[in-house]
Design goal:
Elements (H helix, E strand, L loop, with lengths): L1 E2 L2 H9 L3 H5 L4 E4 H13 L3 H11 L3 E4 L3 H11 L3 H13 L3 E3 L3 H10 L2 E3 L1 H10 L5 H14 L4 H12 L1
Helix pairs in contact: 1-3, 1-4, 3-4, 3-6, 5-6, 8-9, 8-10, 9-10
Length: about 160
């Protein structure tokens, strides 16, 4: 089971990899992530919001809620709120050992909790190295992430090197 935060699910949808990545996998997002990525995205007319909504309607992504006490604990320990807090709380409630996350504060919390994490960029690299997408597709998607401005140039450069390996 995979748990995704808002930034990761949005980024994977924007680079047109979300559906392909989820093939054969079970994914879950908290309601707060759904609201951030779908409801707010649709209000802004974002195409990625409609894709995420379709994947939820088709059952490829499940929407679930973490327990309130777990949310409170995670929120107070790491000063997190919204989707990031709920993703970590849901991972704890469901005993999931790895999340897909692109938020720096949540990534730091993962390190403290000894919870594995991967980013949207890691997904692109892994899919390329496993032959799920071509090197050319991966390069294009990395370029798109670079244009979105979410990643440090050093991280983008390393990703380009990794797909050349």
């Amino acid at each position: 089971m995979l748990i995704l935060d808002s930034s990761s699910i949005i980024l994977l949808a924007k680079v047109r990899l979300l559906e392909k990545f989820l093939t054969g996998k079970q994914a879950v997002i908290p309601l707060s992530v759904y609201n951030e990525s779908v409801i707010r995205g649709k209000d802004k007319g974002r195409e990625d919001a409609y894709l995420i909504e379709a994947l939820v309607k088709n059952g490829k992504i499940k929407v679930s809620e973490p327990n309130k006490p777990t949310c409170k604990e995670v929120g107070s320990l790491f000063n997190l709120h919204g989707g990031e807090r709920d993703v970590l709380a849901l991972a704890k409630d469901m005993n999931i050992k790895c999340i897909i996350c692109d938020d720096k504060k949540a990534i730091n919390a993962c390190k403290i909790l000894e919870l594995k994490f991967i980013t949207a960029l890691n997904v692109i690299i892994a899919m390329c190295l496993k032959g799920k997408i071509s090197k050319e597709e991966a390069e294009k998607q990395i370029d798109m992430l670079d244009e979105l401005g979410w990643y440090n140039i050093r991280i983008i450069k390393k990703a380009r090197q990794d797909i050349d390996a």
